[in-house]
Amino acid sequence: MQRRRKQKDESQFIVGLMSGTSADGIDAVVAEISGGGRGLRAGVVAHVQTPFSPVLRRQILHVCLHGTLAGICELNFVLGEHFARAAIAVIRKANLRSRDITAIGSHGQTIHHLPNAPTPSTLQIGEPAVIAERTGITTVADFRVGDMAAGGQGAPLVPYMDWALFTHSTRPRIVQNIGGIANLTAIPAGASAEKVRAFDTGPGNMVIDAVTDHFFGKPYDCDGRIAASGTVLEHVVNDVLRGPFFLRKPPKTAGREEFGREFVRQFMKCCGRAQKRDVVATATAVTARSIADALRRFVVRGRKEFGEYVVSGGGANNPTLLAMLANELRPLGMKIRASDELGMPSEAKEAAAFALMAFETWNRRPSNVPSATGARRPAILGKVSYA
Q1: Among 190, 335, 374, 383, which has the highest number of CB atoms less than 10 A from its own CB?
Q2: What is the pLDDT of residue 88?
Q3: Per-residue buried b or exposed e for 243-266, using 16+ beta carbons within 10 Å of the residue's own CB
Q4: Where does the chain hold its CATH 3.30.420.40 domain(s)?
Q5: What is the CATH class of 12-157+348-385?
């Protein structure tokens, strides 16, 4: 279907699709976006969460470590169908039609990310040509490779949205996303993109989810109830945080390669014969402490320049995690706010970020933050599959 190309100053409806490191399902949003750079404006019109079936989730997690060429090839197209259905569902929820949507931005499903390999590389699947064909909407996907081709680590990419939407003229802010992996963006007051500092701090929900599933057969610790009933094993937290990733200086990015099955196995071994709920509490404490340690070590360094601390992602719905985090942040003078207070629903934020990046790509503008990823230059991200 041929569409009139909208002018850059017009608002456009863009679909954003995201499946994170936890591989628990797809977040889909319709966002209305206009402007560009620091003048960018974005609002979420509709948000749909589509969980993967247990069988599909196990298949995804299996190919991350043990996938055959045939298995990855087929799953790429299977996930393309799932992403397409999620896009159609969120468009319907927004009471819009395909012809109302300018483009789809799909992060895809990361199955391997190797930024520190001799030849840095990454692989996201969820075939965009399938999404474009099923929806009739031009689809932008595979965002990370453009940054890596320019010498970056391909992550974190959400800091572009953090800078564009959350920079305040007088208030310096930390924007913290807690998805499968946790990442922060430090934004000085009135900052240009070059002044932004951003990096992955370590596990977000990934280890918590893994031990909760292992011991309790649940995909996540709902409302942090299990962790709240347990006791943190402080010696385990201290041992974990001496690991090389936590001590490495930014830019840095993490994934299942660092905090996946092998890390969880070693973590549970360190916990020994502790009560199951204590293991979940300890995993939760690792996330909270690793975030606070990253702030102290690489961002604030004894200064109290950042007062606002804006949290988003699935971890924002875990009261036990947030309580632990608030306790860690108190000496730094930081008060936690939800991104919802600033107009961006926390659970929809990552999907909205890829809608925003697709919008920038559509308008031929870069959307990486080289100071966050280590790239040599700003790059226009994504590959385009035309409908």
Answers
A1: 374
A2: 98
A3: eebbeeebbbbbbbbbbbeebbee
A4: 12-157+348-385, 159-342
A5: alpha beta
- Per-residue H/E/C for 93-139: HCCCCHHHEEEEEEEEEEEEEECCCCCCEEEEECCHHHHHHHHCCCE
* Rounded-to-integer distance, Cα 116 and Cα 123, Å: 14
Q: How many residues does the chain have?
A: 387
- pLDDT tens by residue, 55-112: 999 999 999 989 999 999 999 999 999 999 999 999 999 999 999 999 999 999 999 9
* Class of residue 54 by CB neighbours under 10 A (exposed 0-12, middle 13-18, buried 19+): exposed
Q: Are 30 and 15 in contact (CB under 8 A)?
A: yes
- pTM for this one? 0.92
| CATH 3.30.420.40 is the classification of domain 159-342 | yes
Tokens of 289: 């402490």
Phi, psi of 15 (to 5 degrees): -90, 135
Structural tokens at position 252: 């840095």
